[in-house]
Write a structure and sequence with these properties.
The structure is a homodimer of 214-residue chains. Chain A is an alpha/beta fold and 214 residues long. Chain A contains nine helices and nine strands. In chain A, the strands form two sheets. A seven-stranded mixed sheet of chain A has the order 5-6-4-3-7-8-9. Chains A and B meet through α1, α5, β8, β9 and α9 of A and α1, α5, β8, β9 and α9 of B. The structure holds a DNA duplex (24 and 24 nucleotides).
Chain lengths: 214, 214
DNA sequence: TAGATTGTTAATCGATTAACAATC
DNA sequence: TAGATTGTTAATCGATTAACAATC
């Protein structure tokens, strides 16, 4: 009888787009929004938008559309943006630093509480206002704050050892920005981030576009 | 009679993983690889791996598996990694700089030929070896080199104008790292990059994992 | 030969799309 | 009322999974 959270990845990719569009409408003073307005703005099908909204449990009114505030609120709830979500990050190089400084996390209630590094020059400093700590402190910090998620931003050849440390510290979700595949026990989830893949998708879509134009 | 390139996004997300795993095997001296070996390493279903490989046109041998070199070669071909792909980037802030310095592009034959910015302090300098040019030079450079893809790494409120400039310069594929939705003509493709979405997917998967453990 | 592994054909499953009734 | 828009039910489509034959 437990309500199982079902979702598809494509759905989760669309919802944030609905969210920011409707957020904008609210700022402009609009009170309701129709599925077709969302669809037109995002180049999607109105039926799909309606299905997605139905899926997360928002009910609209014929002729009127959906209550904009309610929609935004429930999307945020569904995406977990209404609770603070804390993470830690290991590897404060170029990419790690950029992530420490990324403002978009706070906006959605995500917070990187600290960065970790082995480089004695970096340890003790702050990057974009976040302290850089030695790896030895990882375990204690994660356990005290009950951190669930960790970002791996180290070179490929150190990814596995970092992941092992994180798992020992009780982390169950790993966001891996290194190009290495890592081994984890069954109760741990890995999200492999591969920027090249996005680029390939863009390129394939360009190709398809060209072909369609013939 | 033109061969239409078909592909699904999930397929394109899996292929790079196969590629790097098999690349590793080759380095270790292995000559062939079976679908089940790939599947086991990536926590996938062997049947799915076989289907994917079939889809890109590689033929294996019963009892033996697939020729590792051939597999890697054809995956790379399918993903467009055998030709040099050039891009330009606009917005040399924290994220833009990190992208300019990212080593993974070159490895797959992608090259950011230059960064562009409006800040006179940045213009004329180099970041990670890439020159930072004024926006006025964007049009000329893109046309001369026949650049197809552009990266938008500017704040949301400047995204649309940058996109308009890119389109005028002949760019048909836009990789948008700003959180703004942008309008483009039908022949232009936008790939919206939203780091938060990845994080949400990770978190949802952690939740699912927890539920599954009950 | 026997057994491992691919290739092929069919079944399932879920996401998307379509059709249309309900309703404000 | 008429028309716009949601909600519901059915159809389609494609990806994944399954079953099993082919083959080295």
């Amino acid at each position: 009888m437990t309500p199982i959270t079902t979702f598809s990845i494509p759905l989760i990719r669309r919802l944030p787009q609905y969210h920011s569009f409707v957020e904008g409408l609210i700022r402009e003073g609009q009170l309701t929004v129709s599925s077709s307005a969302i669809a037109a703005h995002l180049n999607l099908d109105a039926i799909q938008v309606r299905k997605d909204i139905e899926h997360i449990g928002v009910i609209g009114r014929p002729r009127i559309g959906y209550d904009a505030r309610e929609l935004v609120k429930i999307i945020a709830e569904f995406l977990g943006w209404n609770n603070l979500n804390q993470l830690i990050l290991v590897g404060c190089g170029g990419l790690g630093s950029a992530l420490l400084g990324y403002g978009g996390f706070a906006r959605r209630n995500f917070e990187i509480v600290a960065g970790f590094d082995t480089d004695p020059v970096k340890v003790g400093t702050t990057i974009h206002g976040k302290s850089v700590l030695p790896l030895a402190k990882l375990d204690d910090l994660c356990r005290r704050l009950h951190i669930e998620m960790g970002i791996v931003a180290v070179p490929a050849d150190h990814a596995q050892e970092v992941v092992d440390l994180m798992i020992k510290a009780g982390i169950t979700g790993i966001w891996n920005f290194s190009p290495a595949a890592v081994n984890v026990p069954k109760n741990v989830v890995v999200q492999q981030e591969d920027i090249i893949t996005s680029l390939v998708i863009l390129q394939k879509n360009i190709q398809k576009q060209h072909e369609a134009a013939l």
